Amino acid sequence: MALTTTTRAGNGPRRRTLLAGGAAALLVTGCSGGHDGKADERARAEERLRARAGRDSATLLAAYDATIAAHAGLAGRLRPLRAEVARHAEAFGSSPASPSPSPSAPPSPSVPGDGKSALAALADAERRTADDRAAALGSASPELARLLASVAAAGAAHAYLLGVAA
């Protein structure tokens, strides 16, 4: 039985090289085609959504701070939740703590006089914010949608815990 070997002609590119080069050329051509501004608008909308989520976290953080200041006895329960809200603000690119009030800082919220009502107010704020974030999922990129969904779930859990603690 004779053993046959196939030899490739040495004077040309290999088939894989041609296919890979052709695919790369298609990708480059497709990416550099007419730019109609839709990508820029999507990026701006994404940034607005991220900034709004950061402001919402900063507003929640201010509510936690005001409640802790008004009801020192609740501080032990609220500090872990507050710390998570601060991390959420950071994840959205918002500064969670500023040493002095700035013009962009949320106004200090009013806090109910009794602890039970104060916890209920925080639970309502967490619930509203979680609902807003869940509603925004459809207009977010996959990456931001995952972050919004995760933070919304955490907010819903906070609302539950605040309601149980009351």
Task: Tell me the series of helices and strands, N- to C-terminal.
Answer: HHHHH
**Distance linking N and C termini:** 89 Å
Residue fraction in strands: under 5%
Helix segment tally: 5
Rg, nearest Å? 27 Å
Largest sheet: none
Total beta strand runs:
0
Global structural class: mainly alpha
Q: What does this 3D model show about the protein?
A:
The protein is mainly alpha-helical. It has a domain of 116 residues. It contains 5 helices and no strands.
What's the structural blueprint in terms of helices and strands?
Blueprint: H1 15-31, H2 38-70, H3 75-91, H4 115-135, H5 142-165
Helix pairs in contact: 2-3, 2-4, 3-5, 4-5
Keywords: Lipoprotein
Organism: Streptomyces luteireticuli
Biased composition (Basic and acidic residues): 35-52, 124-134
Short structural summary:
This is Lipoprotein. This protein is an all-alpha fold. Helices cover 67% and strands 0% of the residues.
Features:
166 residues; mainly alpha
